[in-house]
Amino acid sequence: MAQKLLKHIAAMTISVFFFLSPVFAVEWPAFDAGDAVFGYGVGQTQPSDLASDPADSCVPPAGSEEETEFDDFGEFNETVPVVVSDPLGGYNRFMTGVNDSLYVWVFRPAAKGYRFVVIKPVRLAIARVFTNASYPVRFVNNLLQLKIRRAGEETGRFIVNTTLGVGGLFDPATTCMEIPPWPEDFGQTLGHYGLGGGCHIVLPLLGPSNLRDAFSLFPDSFLQPAYYIDDTWTAVAVSGTNRLNTLSLFIDEYDDLRAEALDLYIFQRDAYEMKRKKEIGE
């Protein structure tokens, strides 16, 4: 067991280095999230972000251009009072600069190249597959919060999308049956029971987080399918594909916000904490 855990930590480190960027953290704790082997948390793409227009047919026609709504970005314009504990402000600002440089010179070009090669409908389908596979994280954390109905609806979504949705390539649970998604992670579970986020911390490559959410990545990792892939490089390839694909879908929205931010560190910090507060309160 210990050997397997060490192997996956190594895979996570390699995958994080090549495929993650601060854009995920602005969108999640994000990820969703949420995250290389974890696959949830920072920069996690929420199920609702990937659903087809409810007015569409149950199985969208091949090659159709489905529009993805990244509603989370709109939340940053809302005025939500939030007090941020930031005793590590000096370090956090430095690490934000490091992460942003890596984004500009490494991750952004890689994501743009990937986006050029892989058309949007395919990228949306890939994102839905990974979201569907993260069902255990959502199910368990809804149960831990005693949200029994939501856990049941998540199970229904998983069954419908795995069968009628061809392994999650489509989302008939949303477009046909109007079963809502209920994304939850362990950080939200701890927050639900009153545990505060603690001080804000910017993680290398992963971006904005806090002590509670950074710790919560580990319990959630055991619920991710990638953790149970025995071959290290296969796990890296799967997790890296997930992250690169997600970045390719969010890159324009993130670039717009990044360009408009007067202080990138303050913007990312406050946006992250406001988003987490809102998610925990729902």
Give a quick rundown of the structure.
The chain is mainly alpha-helical and about 280 residues long.
Global mean pLDDT: 81
Helix and strand run: HHEEHHHHHHHHEEHHH
Beta-strand proportion = under 5%
pLDDT < 50 runs, ≥5 residues: 12-48, 52-57, 59-76
Give helix % range. 55-70%
Number of strands: 4
Write up what this structure looks like.
With 282 residues, the protein is mainly alpha-helical. Helices cover 60% and strands 4% of the residues. It is built from 13 helices and four strands. It has a two-stranded antiparallel sheet. Helix 10 (186-192) crosses helix 11.
Jot down its keywords.
282 residues; mainly alpha; two-stranded antiparallel ribbon; 13 helices
Helices and strands in order:
Layout: H1 2-19, H2 22-27, E1 32-33, E2 42-43, H3 47-50, H4 71-74, H5 89-117, H6 120-133, H7 135-144, H8 148-163, H9 172-175, H10 186-192, E3 200-203, E4 207-210, H11 211-221, H12 232-260, H13 264-281
Antiparallel strand pairs: 1-2, 3-4
Helix pairs in contact: 1-12, 5-12, 6-12, 7-8, 10-11, 10-13
